[in-house]
Amino acid sequence: MPCHAISDKYFTESKTDNHYNTNNENNLYCQPAEIDVNDRLVRAGLLYDISADAVVWEKHKDRTFPIASLTKMMVALIVMEDIFSGQVDMDTLVKVTPQASRIKGSKVHLRKGCRVSVEELLKAALISSGNDASYLLAQFLGGTEYAFVQRMNKRAAQLGMKDTFYSNATGMPAPKSVNDNRSSPSDLLILAREMLSYDQLLDIAGTSNTVITQDKRVIKLRNHNGLVATYSDVDGLKTGFTKNAKYCLVATANKSGRRLIAIALGVSDWKTRNQFVASTISRYYETLGIGGLEPKTRYAAANCNKKKSSSTSASKKAYVSGFNAGESGLHRVKKGETLYKISSKYGCSVAELKSWNRLRGSIINPGQQLIVRRDFQADSQTSRLRIVSFYKVRPRDTLWNISQKYEGVSVDDIMKVNQIKRARDLKAGTTLKIARYV
Fold first, then answer.
1. Catalytic residue among 14, 59, 61, 69
2. Which of 51, 59, 61, 72 is catalytic?
3. Class assignment of domain 65-303?
C-alpha cells in the first residue's frame, strides 16, 4: 500500500518532532504524518514511524528516567545475540539456581534445581516479566548477574544508547534510587529497533497467553502488555513498573505494512498508559488514512483476551540455529571440536572453513571464533544461493500456509527438505527447515 500523509486535526497540547532524513530512500515513498497528542499524563515518550524513519511525536525524548522491567528488553536482545553467535541454543536447558528462585518482585516462581530451556526463560521474562527468569538468564550467560550487567552496559554503549545505565538484569529498584536502571525514550527506541531484527523476540512478545514447563510442572504465562490481547495489529514489546518508574510501555504495531514503535514512561496507572499508547498509535494510523487499531473483539477490547503471536517485522533475521543470518557468522569452538565436525554442522567443507578463516593447518583451540557462511550455500547446478531458515510449526498450521510465508517455496519443497511423506504428518511444535533459492 502506498505511504501517504494527511494532516491530523485531533488534539492540541503536544509537540510534534518530525526528525527524518529527507535524503533517506524510504522517505521518498513513505512520508510521516503530523499528529498532535495530549501527553500531559505521560512523563516522557515518543512515537516512531519506521517506514518514514521519523519521530512523529515526542516528549522529553532525550531525558533519562527509571525504566523498571523495560530492562528485560536488553536481556532478551543479548540472549538472542548469543544464540545467533552459537554460544547457546533455544533448547539449552538451564538449572534453576538458589539465587534465581529467591528473587523478589514479579516472578514466575521457578523452583530451585528444576531445568528450564532458554526459550522458555525468554518467554517468562518477556511475557510475564519474570524477574527470576531474567536473573537466571543473566547468571547463566554471564556467570554472575554482575558480569552480565557489565555486558548490558557495554552493549548499550555499542548501540549508541548514551543515556542508559543498568545496575541489575531485572529492573528491580536499586538500594539507592540514584542507581536505578534508567534510559531515555530515544535510547529505548534504538533498543526496540534492534529487537525487531529478530522474529523470535517478536513472536514471544506478541503472545498473549502461553505455558512453559519446569520439569513436569506447567506454568501459565499471561502477557503484562494487554494491548497484544486487545488489538490485532499490536505485537510487542515490553511493560515495566516500579514506584519510581511508574507504569512504562514500549509497544510496536504493524498495520498495512506500516510499523510503529510507541514509548510511554512514567504514567500513573496501567489503564491510562495502555489507553494513551493505543490511542496515539490508532490516531496516527487514522491520520495516514489506513484506519485505526481494530479490537479483536468487543470482549477482547474490554478484557484483554488471547492474542495470537504475529511476526510481521519489516526487518527480519532468519533463525539458523546458531548465528545472525547475514553474509557470515561466527562459531565459537567448543572443547573437542574439530574442523571436520564444524564443517559437517554448517554444511560446508573443511577447505572452505580454512579459506574463510585463513587457516594453514587444522589445529583450532576452544574459545576460538571461526567465520562461517552457514546461512547460504551455492547450488552447484543452478549457481544460485540457497538461503536456509527455520520455522516452528504452530497449531492449525498447514504446509500450504507455511509455504505462503516464504517467496519461491512450495509445499513439495518443504516436504522434500524435511523428509515429510504425508502432509497430515505435520505436528505443532516441530521445527521445519525452509530452503529457498535467490
1. 69
2. 72
3. alpha beta
